[in-house]
Amino acid sequence: MDRFAALRVFRRVIELNGFAAAARDLDLSNAAVSKIIKELEADLGVQLIQRTTRSLRLTDTGHDYFNQITRILDELEEADDAVRSSVSEPRGVLRISAPLSLGLVLLSQIFARFAARYPELELDVEFGDQPVDLIEGRFDLAVRGGLLQDSSLKARKLMDIERVVCASPGYLASFGTPERPEDLSKHRCLIYSLSASPRNWMLEKEGTVTRVAIEGGFRANNSLAVRDAAIEGLGIALVPKIYAVDALESGRLIRVLPEWGGELHALYGVYPQHREASLKVRFLLDFLVEAIEKALA
Q1: Coil, helix or strand for 57?
Q2: How many separate domains does the chain show?
Q3: Sign of the CA dihedral 58, 15, 277, 71?
Q4: 3-class SS of residue 116
Q5: pLDDT at 88 over 80
Q6: What are the coiled-coil residue ranges (predicted)?
Q7: How many helices, marked H, and strands, marked E, lie in the chain?
Q8: Range of the structural domain that residue 232 is part of
Q9: What is the pLDDT of residue 291?
């Protein structure tokens, strides 16, 4: 048995959550994938995967083994990248986690252009707003906003995210326009539930920061949903300007307290500290920085 080949098959079975999906991805038959996993388990003398007719899941031993061999295979791939780096373009699989809203508005187009430029590279992108575990998880790179809390991660800044307070003309006509930050507490505000403090807005003006307690009857875990609720007149929103710029330009939204804005949040490309950025991660980070700068110009 080719151990490294077997490990790669095992890894793809778990990453794709199925034998059939792994077989298609690796251009193997279902029977070949099943045989490789059985031989690997027999050679190790343990069961790695619990199989049912509808699903599979890792045993405790299989979970530990998967994490260990993932790191080994990543390091092997990085060693290959280092050898190829002076004469080659990136290749292999690049697994990325990115925010859903920013993906829809900006990143999906950039990832598509990156994939077109480097056809030897396979991009596996997962969009979602929940944080992912880069150390134990399967991702090579995550796009994240805010401060970097985990010292086991490295980060490269991609952009600053400006946030604006806004509402629809209809809402402001019905309920009035706030003139001071504290007036927001008397209004219907739209709540982004994944914020560190959803019912408190930190607003900034020329270096002065004020905290405003807000209330409202609409709550969502997605910034585009919050923006759309504002467009529909449900209340006042604090959203990234990049999500609201079209609605502001068309008049569907109006800036509220235009001299105030949400605190700037930086967006980073983040990868594990325990290894240097691989060739494919470095290429993507360079591409992201350039493409985002052009998109926001």
Answers
A1: strand
A2: 2
A3: positive
A4: helix
A5: no
A6: none
A7: 10, 13
A8: 160-265
A9: 95
